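$ fold --in a.seq
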Amino acid sequence: RGSEMIFKTNNYMKKLFLATFFLCIATLGIQAQIVKPHQGKAAMKSIHNGVNESIKTLDQNIHPTGTHNVWDGYIYPRLGINLSTLLNMGGNPKISFSGGVGIEVFVLPRLGIDMELNYSHQGTAGIYTKFGNTVSGPYDYRLDYFSTTFLARWYPKATMPLSVYSGISLSNCVNAKSELKNGTTTSLKDDHIRSGDFSIPIGTSYEVGQWAFDLRYYASFLHIAKSEKAKRIMGNATNMRIEATIAYKILFL
């Protein structure tokens, strides 16, 4: 019941994030519609000036160290690749992409608290299954997750922009399929695998200007299989993922 409440909270936060995004888009659309024809040039000039000001705001002259002002806040889009597999199933690791957006706020000069909304494509390839004397495969398992991640980030050295961190990550599976080599695809979502996952990320990050280079390992503990059929095939399989990303940090507080 506790894990169910966690995943419901995770879904609520993602819905709130998406609702805010679409509200911004709708507001821009309404503003565009009320511009009168003879105001077109002035409107375009205003938009152009706004874009230039936004670029100036994003391009900040930052020389990062391990010490920050308390309540400094950063927002950072992040993009990269991950190496994933399903432990206890064998097969070959899958290389794919991941990304998202995060917010970091410093509660102590060298301690930041982060919240991230992320997407990742995970899975494994080259899996063979056996029922009786029949062996079939290879199968390619593809899983897509949206996650909310909470981190405590510590900068060990005051003069160096190097951080180490850990926390929790709550994920919701939005797509899960297994594909046989001949192209036959089977949906695994809802009926066969858990809709959510829980993991502990452990990582390190180094900053150069506004860029942050991040390496992270996710340790998952929940067995993916839910149905009896899935348990016979997947056993006690759990997600495992190593992620390397680049983030662009923008000071906003």
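$ fold --in b.seq
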Amino acid sequence: MAYKLGASKEALEFSPSSALDGLVVEVNADVPLSTFFDLQIMLGSADAKQMREAFVLFGDSVLSSWDLEDEDGPVSADGDGVLALPLSLAVNILEAWTEQVGSAKKAPGVSQNGTSPLVGELIETAT
């Protein structure tokens, strides 16, 4: 039987001392590698258009749901909703996802996802 790829959702974890403690954000943890790298490349760019596209990509491809509201009610959990956030909040959410999903959990003495240590180092470098 073949291994089937599937969406894996998880809640982002924010530090208890963070102003975001209590915010519930559910994301797709297993996005295609191309999406992960595209986000890293676009966010690392000095081009405002690419950075905007990165936040839209995050909202449309990574973000699943959240419990955010503004003065008009619930904020949509998509690219438009992400663009409606204050900069610091949007950056904190995206950074939390990058750190949480980009650093795969592993048991002591076990290689990351069965890969060689060199691949593990590449993943750490990319995040």
